[in-house]
Amino acid sequence: MHQDNKINGKEIAREIIEGLKKRERPEKFLAAFLVGEDPASLSFLKKKEEIADELGVEFRLYQLVPSVGAIQIREEIMRVQEEEDCGGVLVQLPLATHLGAHDILNAIDVTKDVDVLGESARGIFYNGDSSVLPPAVSVVEEICRHQNVELAKARVAVLGVGFLIGKPIATWLMGRVRELTVLTRKSDLSDPACGLRSADLVITGAGSPGIIHPDMLKAGAGVIDFGTTIVSEKLKGDLDASSDEISKLSFYTPTPGGTGPILVAKLFENFYKLNSQDYDMS
User: Fold this and answer.
1) Hey, is 34 helix, strand or coil?
2) Largest alpha-carbon pair distance within the chain?
3) What is the pLDDT of residues 207-257, one digit of tens each?
4) Cα–Cα distance measured from residue 140 to residue 120, given in angstroms and rounded to the nearest whole number
5) Closest CA to 169 of 195, 145, 204
């Protein structure tokens, strides 16, 4: 099986990080909040801390127990971000359902919201006025640039309408592409009329391992896969990349090693932008 069409997310992330090293480093710290002790969340935060160390950015982890409750978590976020040398805040997701993720995320000040998850930051983004994009959107933009995808001429299908991936990406694509189709996990992907087979670019964040098979797609299509599901202790994406038919695609992002590393790099790119002297929130 030829792997020339497999995107190396680590290489793209490396380019972004090397570019950041050439810019003026913010003399502020990045605050990360973790509620509980989820091993996967700790692993993701460790990767972020490693990049911070490489860039010389101070990374402070605030680990809280779920029993403290949403109000106390919000208060702790607001306390930390009011410190003069705090340059960015992130909350590691997912959060326990009873905590109410939206209320907690809304405590993040718009000028420190590196993940663009609070309502204020999202509102500016959805209005088209933000120069800081949600990291997932930036990943799509970066991969399209690398692969010379002309969005204005492309038919694009987005699978999944979640808060983190599908919704912001679909919103950003509106008006930028020739044709946009938004699908959910309940869509009949085997139906030729659903728009998947005619798509030049498929972006998926359904979180359903192997839900997309290459034989569902046309030859020459590209796939950007944000799906991450642990199956038998291995991370799996939405795209079934095990088939020999994967060679019919012009490109695809593997799981792991595809969109994940680029997402982390884009988060730090946002941290630099938010703390740049010439940054304009409007």
Assistant:
1) strand
2) 55
3) 999 999 999 999 999 999 999 998 888 889 999 999 899 999 999 999 999
4) 22
5) 204
Whether the CB-CB separation of 131 and 121 falls below 8 Å is answered with no
1 has pLDDT over 50: no
Sequence-distant contacts of 77-85: CB under 8 A, at least 24 apart:
77/31, 77/33, 77/104, 77/107, 77/108, 78/107, 80/31, 81/31, 81/108, 81/109, 81/112, 85/27, 85/28, 85/29
Mark residue 257 as left, alpha or beta (left: phi above 0; alpha: psi -120 to 50; beta: remaining): left
Residue with tokens 């359904």: 206
pLDDT of residue 3: 58
pLDDT of 176: 97
Rg of the chain over CA atoms, in angstroms?
19
Which amino acid is located at 205 in the chain?
G
Q: Three-state SS for 33? A: strand
